[in-house]
User: Which sequence fits this backbone?
């Protein structure tokens, strides 16, 4: 039972909601993301037959994974890590300064904080404990499932309703970067250094499918019809079409796996 963490998170985020009413939208967006993220993570954890104690660790990690976002936005007025702070490492630092995880064993606390610090990494460390990497992979999958949903809904809004914070304040452009497209055509994560406009960011979100870990997540991508919706904001040319066809085939293949 993580009722104490729910209460702490509510109190912690409340002060950021009250700081400036004009900036409530980004804060509220992240609060609701953490709550939905928790549900996807727990569902995935149950599919993977996690024990009750590991589910408790997973739930706490899910609720707290973006804890660095609130202070990040308050200080820098952006969610772009490249021009502010690495929000995952920042979150780990905030948790190390607080005692909210004291009910967990020392090993569990380390696992939670490490998983949070790694959850946005381009690549996971090779020399890390298996239990830390397993937890990190679960939260990375759950994170993607909800972030995809956030952006699909965001692009349904009229332009005047959109908040540029969600798009990392990137410029709008009619085309995309060759380097971003090359990354995804190589079936790998798009390197954030190759993201220079909103279309590149959209390609980056598509590229996340090549960093999905579990069959359950691939099944959910198909069930929620995410890929056609992720394609909508991008220029519709032959290379984009081919990229999405390959992505669709990859997701369908991986969804048939047993784990």
Assistant:
């Amino acid at each position: 039972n993580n009722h104490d963490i729910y209460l702490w998170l509510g109190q912690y985020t409340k002060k950021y909601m009250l700081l400036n009413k004009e900036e409530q939208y980004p804060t509220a967006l992240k609060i609701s993301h953490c709550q939905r993220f928790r549900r996807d993570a727990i569902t995935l954890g149950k599919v993977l037959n996690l024990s009750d104690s590991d589910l408790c660790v997973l739930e706490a990690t899910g609720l707290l994974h973006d804890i660095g976002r609130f202070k990040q936005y308050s200080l820098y007025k952006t969610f772009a890590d490249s021009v502010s702070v690495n929000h995952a490492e920042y979150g780990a630092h905030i948790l190390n300064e607080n005692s909210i995880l004291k009910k967990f064993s020392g090993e569990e606390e380390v696992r939670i904080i490490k998983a949070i610090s790694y959850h946005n990494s381009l690549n996971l460390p090779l020399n890390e404990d298996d239990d830390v990497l397993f937890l990190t992979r679960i939260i990375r999958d759950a994170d993607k499932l909800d972030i995809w949903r956030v952006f699909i809904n965001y692009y349904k809004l009229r332009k005047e309703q959109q908040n540029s914070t969600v798009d990392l304040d990137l410029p709008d452009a009619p085309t995309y970067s060759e380097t971003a497209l090359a990354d995804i055509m190589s079936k790998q994560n798009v390197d954030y250094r190759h993201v220079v406009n909103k279309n590149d960011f959209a390609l980056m979100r598509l590229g996340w499918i090549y960093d999905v870990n579990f069959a359950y997540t691939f099944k959910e991508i198909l069930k929620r019809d995410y890929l056609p919706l992720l394609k909508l904001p991008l220029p519709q040319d032959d290379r984009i079409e081919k990229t999405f066809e390959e992505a669709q085939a990859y997701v369908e293949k991986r969804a048939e796996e047993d784990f």
Remarks:
- Residues 130-154 form the longest helix (25 residues).
- The CA atoms of residues 215 and 258 lie 7 Å apart.
- The radius of gyration is 18 Å.
- DSSP finds twelve helices and no strands in the chain.
